Amino acid sequence: MKFLIITLLLISSLSFSAEALETNSVLEIEKKVLEKGKKHGVKNVLVVFDIDNTLMAMNQDFGSDQWWGWQSGNCLKKKAPSFCVTNDFGTLLDIQGQIFAMSGMKPSEKATPKVIKNLQKKGYKVILLTSRGPGFRNATQRALKMNKMNFQASAIGPKKGYPGVFKPYNLKTPKKFGLTKNDLEKSGNKKSRKASYMNGLFMTSGMNKGIMLKALLHKTNSKFKSIIFADDHIKHTKRMQQILGDKKNIDLVTYRYGAIDSVVSAFKKGNKKEVINAWKSFKSLKAKAFK
How many CB atoms sit inside 10 A of residue 159's CB? Predict the structure, then answer.
């Protein structure tokens, strides 16, 4: 009986409960990472950051994550409002890519690049998981370089990742990709789209981030005792909790990150004149440059 009690206590000590937290400070996230590193060992901790409005933010509202949400949420219909740049999803993606290519980005907090470098120097695996598609890779890596952030050395899997694009999973054979039918049911059984993983940057074309991370862990043959995930959208932290939060062998912590909330709120409440005029200027500039 005594042996049985000890065994049960040992098993329970190896099980973890997921934490769903909220913060406006990257320093708080760093503190949690260091705490988990002390508990599980640095090599057993994976840190995952979203990009837009989490790691970095656009220098202006035009082309930002909040601008995209405003356009995609109101304009993808036959009778689109006059403020829409297009009513076609593919064209909207193309325009977004053009803005990314021409605009700059900045860290969401001044401390962000320093925190990233500090974690990397200590030996933590740190990667990026974004809803951006593979077509935005060059612009995204340029923005990271301009902000002196590099994730190749702290990536999981092959040093430079996987060349080209790939389908992260198949609905018919989820087990082959490290997933279960239940995982896919939770995510709505949506078909896989093209993704890419290179230099520690996982570009997922808007797919479920919980599914994407689980599939990537399988693809790279990576196992961690603790995962810390930060994203400004609560839907993504909820999905991460839904897919990985019930894993008894993973100490999961998700952060709904809100340092840019005031900027997003101001945009949503504002009259949008600035971004409407920015689009007119952008269109005029392209017309003059490519006569």
Answer: 10
Summarize pLDDT for 92-144 with one digit per residue, the tens.
999 999 999 999 999 999 999 999 999 999 999 999 999 999 999 999 999 99
Cβ pair 221, 147 in contact under 8 A = no
Provide the terminal-to-terminal Cα distance of the chain, rounded to the nearest Å. Answer: 85
Q: What is the dihedral of CA 259, 35, 145, 196, to 10 degrees?
A: -90
Given a contact cutoff of 8 angstroms between Cβ atoms, the answer to whether 129 and 75 are in contact is no
> Within its chain, how far is the Cα of 7 from the centroid?
39
Long-range contacts of 93-100 (CB under 8 A, 24+ apart): 93/133, 93/135, 96/63, 96/68, 96/136, 97/135, 97/136, 97/139, 98/282, 98/286, 99/62, 99/63, 99/282, 100/63, 100/136, 100/139, 100/140, 100/143
- The pTM assigned to this predicted structure is 0.92
What is the C-alpha to C-alpha distance for residues 8 and 223, in angstroms, rounded to an integer?
Answer: 24
Amino acid present at 30 = E
